[in-house]
Amino acid sequence: MKKNDFLRDAGNNTRLAHIGSEPSAYHGFVNPPVVHGSTVLFPDMATMEGRSQKYTYGTRATPTTDALCDALNELEGAVGTILVPSGLAAISVPFLAYLSAGDHALIVDSVYTPCRNFCDTMLKRLGVEVEYYDPAPGAGIETLIKPNTKLVHTEAPGSNTFEMQDIRAIAEVAHRHGCVVTMDNTWATPLYFRPLDFGVDVSIHATTKYPSGHSDIVMGSVSANAQYWPQLEEARILMGICGAPDDSYQILRGLRTMGIRLEHHQKSALSIAQWLEGRGEVARVLHPALPSFPGHEIWKRDFKGASGVFSFVLKTDAANARRKSHAFLDALTYFGLGYSWGGYESLAVLVSLSDRTICKAPSDGVVIRLQIGLEDVVDLQADLERGFAAAAAA
């Protein structure tokens, strides 16, 4: 029996330790080597004309990028995976692969802001009709589907405000109308949610985040099922997009510890979220794993875990919102002020929801997003207490 056959029944950490690794192919070394290369030589003209060898040019694939794609295919349950330079590229490339002028695309309103910017600029310039929809309706999305609807984009939980979506119900409706369903699954990773198992056709991931885990790599991945893989791979080749071998090696290395890191992120984040619920300075905590959160039952039904990113609403009126939120954030020490997440360090950022058309900003305060890193919870709580004291004094 092959190793991959054993791995299908293995636990997460066992799988992460072994996927994308074939030591026998590399003289016994457990990590695949980093192959730097553009030109690939052919033994003769017949092979060159027929492209009948595995590697033909550096942009198509290398042993290093193949190792990472193999690992991600195993995690996602996908037929094929492409590597792209960033998480945003992991959204824009499939959109360009599946959409044409005159098509209609449904994009969830709680989407990652750079995705919205791409849709409102480049997609519209290319003649694609973009419509944003409420994340809540589930199967009710059918009322929004038009004869020219070709793509439904989902994200669960939603960026910054963490709205949950009934992914399976949405996918079933979309497929009845011949739409491709894409999902940004960066928050949960395929360890805690496998989009393709719930009817999604294309799973999008900013591997910058948890697969990397060390805040030093920018990369994205897109994994597709059998129906939509050929179009995705064709778009990647036509656009000349490829993953760098050094970055691929680092992501593959990060995958080995992702399960252990996610367990720690999850435990610490939930502990802090529960603690924040008891703070008088907090109007609401936006974390799907909390029973108080509106989308908790969907999360509990479909997801196997939660990651380390959530938000809370700092209680303040509009007149004092800017001053108090800035005072809170400026007083933090362990929490850095930074946009990314998924690394070992904790981060905080003031969220702007001014671009929303349906999921408007809360009226009871300002939204602050936290990335809970690998530090000790007691230290992070003390840091947040300093922030609350500074906000109260501002």
Automatic annotation (TrEMBL):
<keyword id="KW-0663">Pyridoxal phosphate</keyword>
<dbReference type="Pfam" id="PF01053">
    <property type="entry name" value="Cys_Met_Meta_PP"/>
</dbReference>
<dbReference type="InterPro" id="IPR006233">
    <property type="entry name" value="Cys_b_lyase_bac"/>
</dbReference>
<dbReference type="GO" id="GO:0019346">
    <property type="term" value="P:transsulfuration"/>
</dbReference>
<protein>
    <submittedName>
        <fullName>Cystathionine beta-lyase</fullName>
        <ecNumber>4.4.1.8</ecNumber>
    </submittedName>
</protein>
<dbReference type="InterPro" id="IPR000277">
    <property type="entry name" value="Cys/Met-Metab_PyrdxlP-dep_enz"/>
</dbReference>
<dbReference type="GO" id="GO:0030170">
    <property type="term" value="F:pyridoxal phosphate binding"/>
</dbReference>
<dbReference type="InterPro" id="IPR015421">
    <property type="entry name" value="PyrdxlP-dep_Trfase_major"/>
</dbReference>
<dbReference type="GO" id="GO:0019450">
    <property type="term" value="P:L-cysteine catabolic process to pyruvate"/>
</dbReference>
<dbReference type="InterPro" id="IPR015424">
    <property type="entry name" value="PyrdxlP-dep_Trfase"/>
</dbReference>
<comment type="similarity">
    <text>Belongs to the trans-sulfuration enzymes family.</text>
</comment>
<dbReference type="InterPro" id="IPR015422">
    <property type="entry name" value="PyrdxlP-dep_Trfase_small"/>
</dbReference>
<dbReference type="GO" id="GO:0047804">
    <property type="term" value="F:cysteine-S-conjugate beta-lyase activity"/>
</dbReference>
<keyword id="KW-0456">Lyase</keyword>
<feature type="modified residue" description="N6-(pyridoxal phosphate)lysine">
    <location>
        <position position="209"/>
    </location>
</feature>
